Amino acid sequence: MENRKRNIQIKFRVTEKERELIEKKMAQLPIHKIGAYMRKMAIDGYIIYTDLSPIKEYAKELQAIGKNINKSQSA
């Protein structure tokens, strides 16, 4: 192992469904080895992060308004 270029190993587990999804995505590329694909995605892949906190706050406020309306209708 000392002579290998990549001598650190990273392991993780996936479900059967996750494995199938990975294989489907791999089929779209000219990469045939899962290690090469995972390394490429981990280094060069991108993550889209959407901050939903404003939407959650609006939903909370809307829920409070709905509760107030329901209280006034039942009174």
Description:
The protein is mainly alpha-helical and 75 residues long. The protein has one domain (16-74). It is built from three helices and no strands. The protein has helices spanning 16-27, 34-44, 53-74. The longest helix has 22 residues, at 53-74. The N and C termini lie far apart (76 Å). The model has no long low-confidence stretch (mean pLDDT 89).
- Radius of gyration, rounded? 24 Å
Helix content: 55-70%
Helix-strand pattern? HHH
Characterize the overall form.
elongated
Quote the average pLDDT: 89
How many separate structural domains? 1
Q: What is the strand content?
A: under 5%
Low-confidence stretches: none
Number of DSSP-assigned strands: 0
Count of discrete alpha- or pi-helical segments spanning 4 or more residues: 3
Structural class: mainly alpha
Distance between the termini: 76 Å
Main beta sheet: none
Task: Supply the key terms.
75 residues, mainly alpha, 3 helices, 60% helix
Write a brief caption for the model:
60% of the residues lie in helices and 0% in strands.
List the helices and strands and how they pair.
Layout: H1 16-27, H2 34-44, H3 53-74
